[in-house]
UniProtKB/TrEMBL annotation:
A GO MF label: ATP binding
PANTHER family: PROTEIN YOEF
Source species, domain of life: Bacteria
UniProt protein name: Related to propanediol utilization protein (PduV)
Pfam families: PduV-EutP
GO BP term, pick one: biogenic amine metabolic process
């Protein structure tokens, strides 16, 4: 099964996007842990807000086919490092054909 990891700041809309894409009721937990819901991996906002968690994001993204970076449309700045998409796909499943 192809997996999609959603990353973004707290209250950026990651859980709402999972609800919309899955068509099912999704209740996010307020714990600082990854949450798996079918093909979706919901990450805590703290993972992108605190650079000490970047290795966890990069490691988890290696098992994903899609990395969705969710940005709050009303935010004036972004916490996404410029090279994050490149780091997360190098050597991961995105480089392999299914």
């Amino acid at each position: 099964m192809k997996k999609m990891m959603l990353i973004g700041e707290t209250h950026a809309g990651k859980s709402s996007l999972i609800k919309a894409l899955s068509g099912q009721e999704f209740q996010p937990r307020r714990a600082m842990a990854l949450q798996y819901f079918g093909p979706f991996i919901n990450t805590p906002g703290e993972f992108i807000e605190n650079h000490f968690f970047f290795p966890a994001l990069i490691t988890t993204s290696a098992d994903c086919h899609v990395l969705a970076m969710v940005q709050d449309a009303s935010s004036r700045s972004s916490l996404f490092p410029p090279l994050l998409p490149r780091c997360s796909t190098a050597g991961g499943r995105a480089d392999h054909q299914d």
